[in-house]
Give the backbone structure.
Amino acid sequence: MSRRIGSVLLVIVLAAACGPVPAAARPSVAAAANLNFALTEIAAQFARDRGTPVEVVFGASGALTRQIHDGAPFELFLAADEEFPRQLAAAGLTRDDGVVYATGRLALFAPKGSPLTVDPQLDGLARLVSSGGVTRFAIANPEVAPYGQAAEAVLRKRGLWDAIRSQLVLGDTIAQAAQFATTGNAVGGLVAYSLVLAPGFAERGTYAVIPDADHQPLRQRMVLLKHAGDTATRFYAYLQGDAARAILRKHGYGVAN
Amino acid sequence: MDWTALSVSLWLGAGTIAILLPFGIWLGRLLAVRQFRGKLVVEALVTVPLVLPPTVLGFYLLVTFGARSPLGQAFHAIVGQSLPFSFTGLLVASAIANLPFVVQPIQRGFEAIPSDIRDAAACCGLSPWQRFARIELPLAWPGVLTAAILAFAHTLGEFGVVLMVGGNLPGETRTLSIAIYDRMQAFDDRSAGVMAATLLVIAVVTLMLTTTLSRRAGFARG
């Protein structure tokens, strides 16, 4: 009896493993969460211009790097910084060192009804901190998200880091931080400028762009991975072209001329 | 509404049942009727996923089968794909995570069969296989049904492991619960809401179905 059950089990396991997984094109592009809107738009434009769609998966740069190390089948990786692509290059997983495709900006955001008044110098935040009015303040996790590191640098520069530390809520990605910042629980947050400009975001509150001298520049590098196919390679080139750069600029990124 | 993600979730649920049910019936019956050395250990191992954080399971799967581990490289060389970041990998993770949800109800089902019924069936000259198929399995059926439905519902709700070993790949490892997270991060609350409501409805319907079916199974016997 047990032998029969064993063979039934084997057949079922095999059937399930090779089975009808929904057929979809393999995703090829992994991208930092701050690109959520810009890259979606560029990918759509690319599909219209070149007739080949690319699949984009968004996540924290650190998490995506880890996944690529562990064998995730991405062909192109757009990071939020230069460090993560360099790690992959050093591990021999990329075709080359890649290129910087954009420079990101931070913005201070306060949702509607928040006691926080926004300004580029964070004076309003400093006043709110000293009056004890900060309940929760959102940034991305500096451990895994470059935008979180930049946010930490800005808060440190303004001498607010130690005071605000216990009030921080950390998003896994800058997108999650932005989401925390828009909910009523947080007085605001330091989020990617590109996300603040996104449709449906701006009307949820007020924002001020942080001077980019206040933190290490958020130079964002992309790399083709070793096994990148034709489509990914073409998309990589497309991202450096005028059409893509215009879209990046529209979404608040700095793009070299 | 992400139909691809819904389809991945449903296939994952069905696949988990297909793998675990035969195994669960075999192991559940074994644990119910036999006494053997190390039974306590087996029972504990089966129950471990119930109390284990999904991240622990995800961690071990990645470390064991990741591209940097020898086992992962060997697996890739033989099968031609890696276990993490694939549907098959999710299936393996889901099968492990659902072990207690399947084995325990089935074990209770077989335990509830009085031993004299088994003895009587043996006296009637039924072969062990006939005894199993005609007497024991029908009597333990409510347990089997509960196991299948619990595993299915639990798989649909699985999030932590899928996030860690799946990698959010559309059509492959982006399940409905991951898609909700993904849409939330894109400030697409509408889609997230629709998908959350879908999962809620599926959960409620599944549980209503269990109650109805197991009651009916009870009447049929009684």
